[in-house]
């Protein structure tokens, strides 16, 4: 089985990445536009490649609704842990 590459900068910064990246001011409009262009409907299945800390998850969860499914993958285990920590409001989804 392949092993995950070591990405120390993400391991150290995963917990503060969302704040340090200035997500709300800089990247959120682009995320919204990309998800609108993707246009996943209710019940859709979405694969978020390079999901990082899961910043797309709340927007995707709103788009696909409770019947939908979102799978996030990332090369950084620390970023995936942050994505799965429940730090983003996804209406109780894991």
UniProtKB/TrEMBL annotation:
CDD domains: AdoMet_MTases. InterPro entries: Methyltranfer_dom, SAM-dependent_MTases_sf. One of its GO terms (biological process) is methylation. This is Methyltransferase domain-containing protein. Residues 42-83 form the Methyltransferase domain. One of its GO terms (molecular function) is methyltransferase activity. Keywords: Methyltransferase, Transferase.
């Amino acid at each position: 089985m392949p092993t995950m590459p070591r990405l120390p900068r993400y391991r150290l910064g995963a917990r503060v990445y969302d704040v340090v990246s200035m997500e709300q001011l800089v990247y959120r409009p682009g995320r919204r536009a990309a998800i609108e262009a993707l246009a996943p409907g209710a019940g859709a299945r979405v694969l978020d490649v390079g999901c990082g800390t899961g910043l797309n998850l709340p927007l995707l969860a709103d788009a696909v609704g409770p019947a939908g499914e979102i799978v996030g993958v990332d090369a950084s285990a620390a970023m995936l842990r942050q994505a799965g920590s429940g730090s983003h409001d996804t209406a109780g989804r894991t």
